[in-house]
């Protein structure tokens, strides 16, 4: 406990140094000193410091390591955005402030809730409605129809629906729900995925599918059915390769992006060049040319990070996600109820799968399916969804901590 | 449905995730270290175009120190003055627009100083010093390249000369070529295949030069004593394979000397399809070439499915395809006692006075332990066989001619002329490959060209 606290504190100090020094470097980029950029770094550092201490004060049992890692990843994103697009960086800082509030709110809700009972059906309807909404009224950006514009507000429904999907899934696997409910739930998952595929949002479709299968396996322990599910998923993927031209192109580009350089292979090739340009330790912040990479503030931000910070830093980023996953799984294992365990497990899996899908796509390990890099990519919907999921994880962590404290007190011990 | 089952499953999936993420890390490291340079050094990379305006780009020199592409004292970028020389080395040096794949693109890392560490670059940035690139010294000798281009005599084709002990490429030319000082035709999307470097990326049927591989397979499989009778043609599975003459009773040595098709077609039957495929693979056919200095097309030898195809393959007329550089590597390997060296094009990198990179020879394959018999056969090809036109007084030359028939589509059968050879002398370890497109007989046309180039190389002291 004490060790964890010290570790988290040290990491937070490191993040603040990282933020301030990176912004100091960027503020001299145009030759003369830009006070605005320096102030940005200071502001971001203060916001994180405040959020961390406030969280620790209100929720004594919050998992500090998880929180700090999510701040670390966020600050990598802020620095990269500040270097690429000032306006987006400022927006993202505002999202960070809002995200922290939402995180706190989610922690409170999760702490209070035993399970969501009938509300689940409402969440199902809402999430399905959101996806349907995107399919019918959405705007196509980057090949996928996953943006909705409502006057001044535009958002990605599939990001918001993610959180609901996790809660609904945890609810259905927490207890035996009977045949009718199971069929109903299965139909819900199937329809969500179909809607996403129809909207061409393949990254999200893959994410929903994968998360469902993983939660199904953990929740039911039915290995055979899971393998069959994987089989069906694979068959579906192979079928879509032949049926949906979009999917086929993606796979062909993946196999050899260079021959499609002028057309659909362009962003993969540009991404690979950016990664290669950085070498082990990067060109240095502001000294590379990640401007050449399309969507470098969103799906492709990992390539920009590798270019300017280097492969070693890229690997550190991947390790940060890994530590995040390990913490999440530990919290899930410690949970008192099956519902809580599945909630945390689902949230952790969704975030890790999402990171894997996009990093793997950018480095050409797997075919590219566009999706944001959690915490790092610019974008309000995606960032808020991530903070909600962290809120879920932290809420259960707080519950666990309070339970442990109670047990120790009942045994007459002291908290160390 | 018990809770500890759930816990066990969570742990199991944690392990799966750890494996996946470690996989990401391993793949990222592997891919960047293996393909990174290739990803970066492409004609599409806007970084290379973009940096030209802000960096004092390094010069490109030949091995003698002659400046092929450089910044003059007025700060202008210039190519070597002599037009014939400029055109001869054009594919190796490349153009400033990155339309061809030369040193300007391939070695951008050095020329733009990207090999220098981040700290040096940040220091430069803060001190306001202009970023400077390093000079790149190539292994080619521009004068020898000029002779090689001349030797092609206007034919389309390519010449590669290598030092077979070190793998250094002393000359590499590709015809037709282009003048990098006037790229307007290509910038407008015009031109034919002038920008293609045939030496590294031109895939040609190897023709009779492939008989060296078949001969190696015979030797490696203990069939070097295989004999047959050539009556001018042979019938395999109902298909007739014609020979260049009537060679009578014939063994391996004179079959190479006279390039007897009947002998090798029948030898292929005796060897079986797998033995030749195995030998071709040992000499790096069907291999993805990943060299540090050069981007090179992969040569192809398809496994034949029946005896007829195997017979055609054994004389280099099936689906076999090879680049001139690979042909040169194979003959260099035979000359170098069965040790194949990696072809090298980057000799030195000079950062001001410091040498930051120095060529080191690398062995890439050792397909044979003993090549003496093969060398002897090749020497007799030049002494008294099909390649007598490649004789040079004072040195022993070994070689193999090839006349690779190609179907041009309008029933007009014509042939590419090949000569691959070497000088059998440790003081002059030179290997050469010459291909002249649609020039007819290899012995009559390619062999004299090879002689001219090798004689010039000897004159220059290589
Ligand atoms: Zn014959």
Terminal-residue CA separation of chain A: 7 Å
* Cα Rg of chain B: 25 Å
SS elements, strand count of chain B: 19
Could you tell me the mean pLDDT of chain A? 86
Query: Sheet bearing the most strands of chain B, described?
Result: 6 strands, mixed
Q: Helical residue percent of chain A?
A: over 70%
Look at the helices and sheets of chain B and give the structural class. alpha+beta
Decide which structural class fits the backbone of chain A.
Answer: mainly alpha
Kindly report the name of the CATH homologous superfamily of one domain in chain B: DD-peptidase/beta-lactamase superfamily
Overall outline of chain A: globular
Uncertain spans of chain A: none
Percentage of β-strand residues of chain A? under 5%
Give structural notes.
The complex is a heterodimer of chains A (416) and B (462). Chain A has one domain (115-407). Chain A has 15 helices and three strands. Chain A has helices spanning 2-27, 35-58, 64-84, 86-112, 119-137, 157-174, 178-198, 202-220, 223-243, 245-255, 266-278, 301-309, 311-334, 338-362, 380-410, and strands at residues 139-141, 144-150, 153-155. In chain A, a hairpin with a 2-residue loop joins strand 1 and strand 2. In chain A, helix 8 runs antiparallel to helix 9 and helix 13 packs antiparallel against helix 14. Chain A starts with a helix and ends in a 6-residue tail after the last helix. The mean pLDDT of chain A is 86. Chain B is an alpha+beta fold and 462 residues long. Among the domains of chain B are: 1-41; 207-459, 3-Layer(aba) Sandwich (Beta-lactamase), CATH 3.40.710.10. Helices cover 39% and strands 20% of the residues of chain B. In chain B, the strands form six sheets. A six-stranded mixed beta sheet of chain B has the order 4-3-2-6-14-15, with no helix packed on it. In chain B, strands 8-7-19-18-17 form a five-stranded antiparallel beta sheet. The chains are: A mainly alpha (416), B alpha+beta (462). The interface between A and B is large, with 50 and 41 residues. Bound molecules: zinc ion (ZN).
């Amino acid at each position: 406990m004490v060790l964890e606290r010290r570790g988290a504190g040290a990491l937070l100090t490191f993040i603040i140094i990282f933020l301030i020094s990176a912004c100091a470097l960027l503020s001299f980029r145009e030759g003369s000193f830009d006070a605005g950029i320096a102030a940005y770094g200071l502001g971001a550092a203060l916001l994180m410091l405040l959020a961390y201490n406030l969280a620790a004060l209100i929720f004594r049992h919050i998992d500090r390591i998880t929180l700090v890692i999510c701040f670390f990843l966020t600050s990598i994103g802020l620095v990269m955005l500040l270097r690429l697009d000032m306006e987006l960086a400022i927006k993202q800082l505002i999202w960070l402030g809002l995200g922290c509030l939402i995180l706190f709110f989610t922690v409170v809700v999760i702490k209070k809730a035993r399970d969501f009972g009938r509300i689940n059906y409402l969440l199902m309807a809402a999430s399905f409605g959101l996806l349907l909404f995107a399919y019918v009224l959405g705007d196509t950006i980057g090949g996928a129809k996953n943006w909705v514009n409502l006057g001044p507000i535009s958002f990605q429904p599939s990001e918001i629906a993610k959180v609901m999907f996790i809660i609904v899934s945890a609810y259905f696997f927490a207890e035996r729900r009977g045949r009718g409910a199971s069929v109903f739930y299965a139909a819900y998952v199937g329809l969500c995925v179909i809607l996403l595929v129809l909207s061409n949002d393949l990254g999200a479709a893959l994410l929903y599918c994968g998360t469902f299968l993983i939660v199904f396996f953990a929740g039911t322990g039915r290995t055979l059915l899971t393998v069959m599910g994987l089989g069906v998923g694979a068959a579906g993927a192979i079928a879509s390769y032949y049926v949906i031209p979009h999917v086929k192109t993606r796979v062909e580009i993946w196999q050899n992006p260079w021959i499609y350089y002028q057309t659909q292979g362009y962003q993969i090739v540009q991404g690979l060049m950016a990664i290669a340009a950085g070498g082990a330790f990067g060109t240095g912040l502001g000294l590379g040319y990640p401007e050449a990479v399309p969507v470098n503030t969103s799906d492709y931000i990992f390539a920009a990070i590798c270019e300017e910070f280097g492969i070693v830093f890229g690997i550190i980023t991947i390790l940060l996600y890994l530590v995040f996953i390990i913490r999440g799984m530990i919290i899930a294992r410690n949970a008192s109820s099956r519902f809580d365990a599945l909630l945390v497990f689902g949230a952790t899996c969704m975030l890790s799968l999402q990171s894997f899908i996009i990093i793997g796509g950018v480095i050409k390990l797997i075919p590219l399916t566009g999706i944001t890099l959690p915490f790092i990519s610019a974008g309000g919907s995606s960032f808020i969804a991530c903070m909600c999921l962290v809120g879920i994880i932290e809420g259960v962590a707080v519950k666990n901590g309070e339970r442990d404290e109670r047990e120790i007190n009942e045994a007459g011990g002291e908290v160390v | 449905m018990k809770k500890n089952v759930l816990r066990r499953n969570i742990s199991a999936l944690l392990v799966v995730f750890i494996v996946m993420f470690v996989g990401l890390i391993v793949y990222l490291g592997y891919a960047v270290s293996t393909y990174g340079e290739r990803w970066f050094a492409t004609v599409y990379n806007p970084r290379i175009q973009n940096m030209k305006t802000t960096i004092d780009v390094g010069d490109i020199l030949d091995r003698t120190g002659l400046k092929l592409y450089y910044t003059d004292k007025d700060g202008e970028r210039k190519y070597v003055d002599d037009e014939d020389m400029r055109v001869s080395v054009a594919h190796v040096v490349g153009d400033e627009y990155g339309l061809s794949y030369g040193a300007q693109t391939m070695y951008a890392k050095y020329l733009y100083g990207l090999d220098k560490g981040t700290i040096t670059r940040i220091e430069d940035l803060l001190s306001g010093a202009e970023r400077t690139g390093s000079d790149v010294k190539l292994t080619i000798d521009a004068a020898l390249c000029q002779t090689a281009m001349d030797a092609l005599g206007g034919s389309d084709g390519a010449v590669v000369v290598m030092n077979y002990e070190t793998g250094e490429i002393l000359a590499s030319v590709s015809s037709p070529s282009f003048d990098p000082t006037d790229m307007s035709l290509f910038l407008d999307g015009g031109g034919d295949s002038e920008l293609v470097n045939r030496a590294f990326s031109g895939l040609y049927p190897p023709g009779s030069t492939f008989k060296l591989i078949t001969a190696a397979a015979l030797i490696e499989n203990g069939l070097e004593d295989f004999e047959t009778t050539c009556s001018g043609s042979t019938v395999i599975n109902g298909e007739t394979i014609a020979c260049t003459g009537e060679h009578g009773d014939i063994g391996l040595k004179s079959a190479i000397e006279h390039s007897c098709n009947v002998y090798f077609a029948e030898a292929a039957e005796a060897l079986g399809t797998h033995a030749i495929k195995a030998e071709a693979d040992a000499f790096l056919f069907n291999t993805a070439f990943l060299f540090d200095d050069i981007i090179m097309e992969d040569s192809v030898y398809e496994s034949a499915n029946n005896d007829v195809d195997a017979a055609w393959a054994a004389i280099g007329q099936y689906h076999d395809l090879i680049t001139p550089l690979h042909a040169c590597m194979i003959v260099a390997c035979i000359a170098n006692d069965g040790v194949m060296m990696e072809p090298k094009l980057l000799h030195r990198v000079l950062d001001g006075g410091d040498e930051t990179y120095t060529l080191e020879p690398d062995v890439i394959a050792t397909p044979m332990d003993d090549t003496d018999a093969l060398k002897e056969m090749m020497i007799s090809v030049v002494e008294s066989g099909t390649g007598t036109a490649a004789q040079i007084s004072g040195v022993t030359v070994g070689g193999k001619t090839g006349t690779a028939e190609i179907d041009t589509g309008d029933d007009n059968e014509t042939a590419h002329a090949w000569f691959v050879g070497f000088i059998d002398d440790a003081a002059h370890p030179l290997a050469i490959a010459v291909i002249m497109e649609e020039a007819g007989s290899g012995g009559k046309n390619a062999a004299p060209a090879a002689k001219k180039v090798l004689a010039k190389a000897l004159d220059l002291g290589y």
